[in-house]
Amino acid sequence: MAEKDQIYRCLNPVGIELPVKTSPLAPRLDTLDGKTVHFSITGEPDITIALDKRLKADYPNVNWTTKKSYTPMPVQLSEEEMKTTDAVILGVCW
Amino acid sequence: MPYIAKLEKAGIPTVLIDLEDQHEMVKQEALAAGVPNIRYIPASRTIPGPEDVEEWIAPMLEMLTRPLTEKEKESGMYTPAQDRILFEGTLDEAQEFYQQTRIVPEPLNAPISVYTDGLPIIIPTEERVKEMLKGTSHKPEELITYQSDRGGRFDRSLNKGDVVRFQPRLFTATVEKVAVNAVMAGCKPEHLPAVLAIAESGVQTGTTVFNNQWMCLSGPYAKEVGMNAGLGMLGPGNPAGMAIGRAYQLMAINLGGAIPGINRMSSIGSPINRVGLAFAECADKLPPGWKGLNEEFGFKKDDSVILVMGTEGGLNGAQFSPGGYRALQKSGHGGMARKLGVKGIPGPHNWLDWILPDIWVGEREGGRIFIMVHEMAKHLYDIGYKSKGEVLEYIWKKSFEPLKKYRDRSWVDLTTNGWLGNEPQSGKPWKELPDDYMVPAGGDKPDSSCIIVCGSDEEICFEITGSVRGMWGSQPVYSIDAWR
Q1: Interface pTM (ipTM) of the complex?
Q2: Segments forming the whole domain that contains residue B57
Q3: Which residues contact A71 (CB under 8 A, 6 or more apart)?
Q4: Which CATH architecture has domain A31-94?
């Protein structure tokens, strides 16, 4: 066989993607009224300051809580705080 | 994303606000975190906040109340298959296969190579990979793990024995996978220990700004394999340097799954990352008492190591002409001598005073990697700096500036977390410090910076912007010997 026609087995350079157990999303709320909704702020104050104001003004029947970081790493809810939180908005990630 | 996943799995519905060009990255990270169907909505990069929020506040909140679809209720196991043999055919057919491209949509909108850096590669046949594996005593099926404790920050501590998760897709790899990429890069078997040490770093590709990935070898290994530590060491031509540097980028693409425009979002990219950058320090020409990188980072003088860096910022240099430098030091003439006020006085003079503190004016704050030729290092020694540490201390002290000026920088809003918390030097809250409080623009401490000596004779000093810190703040120097 001419060298140019020789068949070679060529190896895969791609990393190994580990299996992932996938979960369903949490059930959604029937209404926001009367619920505790947490706004987790991660930077982008031009957007998040405006959003924070609108949420509180437009949805006064929601109990809004907030934790703020100027970095992409959110300040997380504690286990105790999670027990009394009904939903979370996280932004802006980039 | 792990936080969003934690909340959803705990039964707390979420919605993520991202930027539109980041959607693919969000989807990839959501899958890796086990919540592939998270709900997200884009904000604008350009529309002012109040107008932007007006556009999407209602649909965003609706994502918290709209009932789940059948797809969103699904659970299971994502088990991607992978074959050890990627292709079977002639070498010409293989070259065509390995060079295939995909079109990456906006914000890129161009073909990007699937398996390579855009250039042809050495086809990783079974025979070639088997030959490459002779370069290490580690078994082909061995997973790449950390060979020592690395430290870290936030919630990411990297410990000996932990499996390396390659950024950004968090893939894992075996020694054989690294060897495959080493073959592709054009490495020889004797280069494999360095490539494995690079793999141990996780080959990060940074975020959205201007991350430069580069490596510097220290210790006897560099000479063993013929690395260039002299003239042109950052440039082309040296086979070992070119191949080892290229291996980083190929591993980032293949082991890390980094794709420009999808999850490698460095806005304009960096020329340093084209084909990779690896070089060696010139330990032979260090001034007396100046330690090599290996000793600086806790290794012995005869240990071979590699500094693996991802620095956010550019490459500065050539602020002065080599002839101007010689005129300064030989006889005290020229612009450099005028600025330093030593006209007519032969040197050696402290040339650092000519570039400091200007290297931080209009440039990003933080550490710098000073790559200087041996003559210039020797002049500093002759002036009285008997160690690199003393030079770094001097540089750091020259970087101090008033807080009022420091606040005018940009990254500081993020690095101080919105000026919450305490200033590192005084321990006092940032917001309580007066405008004239002096802050080091050159990093939190002198060894935020680093000095690498080059064996070239032409008088130049480059500065790479960025602190000496590995991924997640971990120790950035990896043992090559551990991978022999």
Answers
A1: 0.93
A2: 2-73
A3: A42, A43, B414, B417
A4: 3-Layer(aba) Sandwich (3.40)
